[in-house]
Amino acid sequence: MRPLFAVGLVFAGCCSNVIFLELLVRKHPGCGNIVTFAQFLFIAVEGFLFEAKLGRKQPAIPIRYYAVMVTMFFTVSVVNNYALNLNIAMPLHMIFRSGSLIANMILGIIILKKRYSIFKYASIALVSVGIFICTSMSAKQVTSQSSLSENEGFQAFTWWLLGIGALTFALLMSARMGIFQETLYKQFGKHSKEALFYNHALPLPGFIFLASDIYDHAALFNKSELYQVPVVGVAMPLMWFYLLMNVITQYVCIRGVFILTTECTSLTVTLVVTLRKFVSLIISILYFQNPFTVWHWLGTLFVFIGTLMYTEVWNNLGITRSQPQKDKKN
Fold this sequence. Notes:
Helix content is 77%, strand content 2%. It is mainly alpha-helical. Helix 4 runs antiparallel to helix 11 and helix 6 runs antiparallel to helix 7 (150-188). The chain is globular. The two termini are 31 Å apart.
């Protein structure tokens, strides 16, 4: 029952989180910093109360190791959200971030000296082709906007290239953080809830450098039209309502993934998260009428098929079916 509940949390939390994020970004494209700050603050406060026991509980992993992990996590979160301010459409943002397997494999080969099967290399090639197709089609859309002059079109394309660079950097940094986290867990054991708290609490002072931008967007949020919150009956600025719902759904999403990792195999978690990304993409395209061509669909198909191939889902399902037969013989 708990795995089913966790799957429900992942789909309800993560998919609705994407909706509220896009509602925020469409109105204020540069609001990534205030969104990141609100998410970090909420999870840090919750962790301080229930995980750190108001600071009385000592961390199982030394703080100096968390300091390194937090630097990477903070950078990835800020850069990913800021990329939405650089002409990156939400569907491309989601597809590009699905290429984490590529970054993990590249850094695994370079840092951990890992070797993979031909099948895994083929799956990564498929993911790479899919991302390349979606990225090149999005580039054409940016440069061919009829409402822009030639000079404005060039500027838009330049900002878009910077956005792609930011996403690539965040992808590689996230993979590096994953490898660092993996080595920590091998040395000190898995402490997911503790890591979640420290990854969000320790970076909070870093937002001082982004304070002016956060303040400016808070002022813009205050100027948005009032919205009557259902059930509660309280009126609040619409953008603050979107931000509040984004933070809550982000927490529900993270909690759902955490429960899933404790109750299910890594294969199941990968399948659920991959399917969730696909559903989020569909919602973004249909609900927000984001431009999505046949080529985009082809690229998306390549990305998700490649991801499933990498997890060797068909092999694992085959093992699951054949296991009872072996037991009967024995």
